[in-house]
From TrEMBL, chains A, B:
PANTHER family reported for this sequence: ARSENICAL RESISTANCE OPERON REPRESSOR ARSR-RELATED, HTH-TYPE TRANSCRIPTIONAL REPRESSOR CZRA
Keyword DNA-binding annotated: yes
Residue stretches making up the HTH arsR-type domain: 9-102
Domain of life the protein comes from: Bacteria
NCBIfam families assigned: HTH_metalloreg (NF033788)
Ranges that cross the membrane: none
Organism: Thermoflavimicrobium dichotomicum
Matching PROSITE patterns: HTH_ARSR_2
GO molecular-function term, one example from the UniProt record: DNA-binding transcription factor activity
Name of the molecule in the record: ArsR family transcriptional regulator
Endpoints of the signal sequence: none
Keyword Membrane on entry: no
Length: 102, 102
DNA sequence: TTATCATATGAGCAATTATTCATATTTAAG
DNA sequence: CTTAAATATGAATAATTGCTCATATGATAA
């Protein structure tokens, strides 16, 4: 195939696709997203359930929020997080499914 | 939800899911896989078409091969690579599609 | 064999990243 | 206002990663 005959992805698309996968490439983030796909959670609950430090969870939530994959809701002293991107959750669940039933 | 009531992912599943996404989280690997999803290519062709050094391409191909995402076929001095994991290509194309039609 | 083309590989390096530790901020209760 | 609880944040660090450069390997042709 000649160079001109290829269908190319634009640099921006490639960058955004890789960013999407990068978000999902960390075990802690996967656990957080999967947990949040089951229920809205506050930070300490996530930390306890997943056995990750409060600080690490908070850092990852800030990261996930910056990509609009989760959203936050305050209620008193507590902040509840939940998923905010159905497509990314679908992508995650599909991949889990595929790997579980190799 | 009580800790015991959650559906948990095993550590092995989480690790494998994150590895899968990690493979797809690099722009060069995305370009290579997308190119190989269109046609079987030799190493130099990939390097030229994508404007990446021969060495970088070869390193990434070795990486992709170690995860069995691509396979190699020798013909004389030339080695032709092609995709060897339909599911990962599907995952990639779905994500490209989603981002292109945000 | 020797020369050359195609690809692979190892060392080194700069950049990124996930975590920890310490501390700051925000909110509510007393 | 003070204290405590919940969360956020910044600096530091160790680990990982993707590339380059130089060189090695493998295959073919002369």
């Amino acid at each position: 195939m000649r160079k001109d005959d290829h269908h190319f992805l634009s640099e921006e698309i490639v960058e955004e696709v890789s960013r999407t996968f990068k978000v999902l490439s960390d075990p802690t983030r996967i656990k957080i997203l999967y947990l949040l796909s089951q229920e809205e959670c506050n930070v300490n609950h996530i930390a306890e359930v997943l056995d990750v430090s409060q600080s690490a969870v908070s850092h990852q939530l800030a990261f996930l929020k910056s990509y609009r994959l989760v959203k936050a809701r305050r209620q008193g002293k507590t902040i509840y997080y939940s998923c905010d991107d159905e497509h990314v959750i679908d992508l995650l669940k599909m991949t889990i499914d595929h790997i579980e039933h190799d």
